Amino acid sequence: MASDEGEMGGGPGKHHIQDAVASDEGEMGGGPGLPAGDPTLRRRIEPWEFEAFFDPRELRKEACLLYEIKWGTSHKIWRNSGKNTTKHVEVNFIEKFASERHLRSSISCSVIWFMSWSPCWECCRAIREFLRQQPSVTLVIYVARLYHHMDQQNRQGLRDLVSSGVIIQIMRAPEHDHCWRNFVNYPPGKDVHWPRYLPLWMELYALELHCIILGLNLEPEYVP
């Protein structure tokens, strides 16, 4: 779901999302508060969960995935969330998608992931295989943090994803705001009151991601 101004791996020309329009179950992006009978509540996470999972300063072990799916030329967006089980969230999504959706190659499918951690190398491989089997699917990934980013296999896994056409970027203020409005069970009147993190953390992760995509190392390797 790349735009003409999109980027690969957090470099210049950021690919920022727009606040989403209605989903196929009646969700609207942003509002004065969520009514008690809102059908999207079951798919929303609590404010404390959002802060715990997506604060770039925290190193929470568990991972959380917030995702949006858009079919063809429709303006409707389907949203949901997932967390680690005995498998990583990426694998859970792929297995759920494959078991519930039977795509025709003539119908495009745009998927956006908002992840608390970037994928490990094994999940990167699973994602590439999923996209190979589903050529009509395009994937954009926003991550709050980089998972074991000094591990060379993880770095190569992210590069391989980009080479496969996946857009990977660090979540910044617009993405955090979008997730708060559309994925969090925020209190009435607090639709714009999301936790505002220091830009420094986001910029540092974005710089490191850019170096990973370019095959560079910020820290020199030790040579005995």
Helix content: 25-40%
- What order do the helices and strands follow? HEEHEHEHEHH
- Biggest pleated sheet: 5 strands, mixed
Helix segment tally: 6
Terminus-to-terminus distance: 45 Å
Number of strands: 5
Shape: globular
Radius of gyration: 17 Å
The largest beta-sheet arranges its strands as 2-1-3-4-5
- What structural class do the secondary elements suggest? alpha/beta
Give the strand content: 5-15%
| Average pLDDT taken over every residue | 80
The residue ranges in which pLDDT falls below 50 over 5 or more consecutive positions are 1-41
Model description:
With 224 residues, this protein is α/β, with parallel strands linked by helices. The protein is 32% helix and 14% strand. The protein contains six helices and five strands, in the order αββαβαβαβαα. Strands 2-1-3-4-5 form a five-stranded mixed β-sheet, sandwiched between helices. Strand 4, helix 4 and strand 5 form a beta-alpha-beta unit. The longest helix has 16 residues. The radius of gyration is 17 Å and the shape is globular. The N and C termini lie far apart (45 Å).
